[in-house]
Amino acid sequence: MIKMALNLLKPHPLNAKIYGDSADADLVESIEANGILSPILVTSEKAEIGPNVIISGHRRYYAAKRLGVDAVPVFISDIYDAIDIEEAVIVANKQRQKNGEQIGREIQKLMDIVSKRARQRSLANLNNNNIPVEVGNLPPRGSSGKSRDVVGRMLGIGGTTAIRAAKAVTVIDDLLAGGEVEQAEEIRTALNKSVNSGYSLAKEHIDREERAASESTNKSTFNATNDNIEWAKWSWNPVTGCKFGCPYCYARDIAMRYTGHFDPTFHENRLNAPHNTNIPESRRYEAGIKNVFVCSMADLFGDWVSEEWINKVLDSIRKAPQWNFILLTKNPKRYLQFKFPDNCWIGATADTQNRADDALEVFDEMSKMGTKPEVTFLSCEPLSESISLPEFGCYIDWLIIGGRSRSSKLPEAQPEWEWVESLLMQARQNGIKLYFKPNLTVQPKEYPE
Fold first, then answer.
1. Which is it for strands 239-240 and 344-349: parallel, antiparallel or unpaired?
2. CATH class, 223-436 region
3. What pTM did the predictor assign?
4. Which CATH class is domain 2-91?
């Protein structure tokens, strides 16, 4: 064991992808009181991925970093092979309490490791003794039994549970890559309650995708939202990505985690979704069943989005009068450049007074021009300060209020009750319909003196 400067240590990227570790309060308190009692395991100079990469002890590292510790005790590992190191990162977490998604991601990676080892052994067997083959320090694991059973035994779970967890995580990633956040979060929530629950929801998606693929390889459809979005039962992302860079943006976090970028992208193959999606007969009279939330993983009216992209999306909307499309932007001034089909509701994010004022001025101008759609709305999510609706607040028909969701830059938070109460009263006075998002949990708790 030696002491090593904390700034020399590097977290292994696999740890963040699977566990998303950070410093919890109890561990920080313990280390502040007693120091780091168990050394952090790191790679050596000979490791394929370089020296000082953490194999075990990520949470201790983050706690020490939070406390401003200069140096920490470390053990230098004698594991050199990159694949062996990946396995060691997972094995080091064998005893920790894990949710279903973490288990699924462990299984995904371990199955990938088993597959890589099998390929390396096959390559080694094809070469004679005079031709060296790089197979690292890998033991000949998985020589018998199915891969799912091999990795299941490594984690102490059954092979069926292992494969179900991995499949559920794969579906989550596919949905997030396509911008279908609501569905992905619904499966993740179920998976973290139990693997079987998550797999059941994921299997519905797998079966639906297989049926759609058998009908047409180029057939795009809407994605169903979850119960948290009662006002729109479908989402549609013909454009993904955004450049606003809001610190509370969970969509950017999701995109960066699973696709590595949040660049604006046009998915022209999704333009036919309005005509390929049918309402099930059993849901025909369900509230909000015809409402489609457009670009839940983008801002369609950002200055960086080409006019051509927007017009193609609006043209698809215009040709699908059987649906009601809900549009939302942080750049409402661009609404003035377009003529909207009758089956559109258009809204603007109003998390601050300045944004509310900008949006209301645009809606006022559209009203004067005769281009205002039947429904315009403000989305005060997250409501970040007290907002007053001026006289032409009557030009909005709907007001959405919500709290702040957790992101990589900011924790989740609730607005002050007085801000919410003020908007509620203004909405009532102006005949504006009101919708409280499920993440709005703030409540008045007042007592007489």
1. unpaired
2. alpha beta
3. 0.57
4. alpha beta
